[in-house]
Amino acid sequence: MALVPADRRGEGAIVGLSVRENLTLTDLKRHSGHTWLLNRSAERAEVAEWIQQLNVRPPRRDAIYATLSGGNQQKVVLAKWLRRKPRVLLLDEPTQGVDVHAKATIHAPAREIAAQGAVVVIASSDDTELCDTCDRVLVMRDGAIVAEVAGDRLTPAELGRLQLEAGIVLNQEGMFA
Question: Does residue 32 contact residue 18 with C-beta atoms inside 8 Å?
Fold first, then answer.
């Protein structure tokens, strides 16, 4: 199971480390032998592969994470978990504060691992993102599911309507609270 948190700088990465260090932090054993020494060339090759696959800019493995744009930071956080091949991937506001091109790059691998059988859960306040990436959407209020939308009904307008409907609370006198 892997979580890509909404707060990529505070919870998703160590901002003072490099792209390489952040990306491989989730599985150091992969590139270490029986002596626990890292095989730097294997590590660099894998990092280069992820940088290319997710189009991280600048494409420098030793760039300090904090110097990257928000979208490129998010790509690094996503890559560090995708390399673990999770069976469950939780994405919390995965494209908040990223540009349109980064959004597409973030959505593509999420769709790909879902097609391979992984469960991908996206928590997002962006109705368009949910409609473009999800097979079904659950609308929640106070920790409870209040609606489920799928298929042709899965539109931003329908999600907006359901959110408003779920948010309408009446007090004891029948007045809006």
Answer: no
Domain 2-134: CATH superfamily is P-loop containing nucleotide triphosphate hydrolases (3.40.50.300)
**pLDDT above 80: residue 37:** no
| Residue-range domain boundaries for the chain | 2-134, 135-177
- Where residue 168 falls among pLDDT bands split at 50, 70, 90? low
In a 3-state reduction of DSSP, which class is residue 150?
A: strand
d(CA 157, CA 5): 27
Within 8 A by CB and 6+ apart from 2, the residues are 81, 82, 84, 86, 88, 89, 90
CA-to-CA dists, residue 58 to 48, 67, 68, 71, 75, angstroms: 12, 10, 8, 12, 12
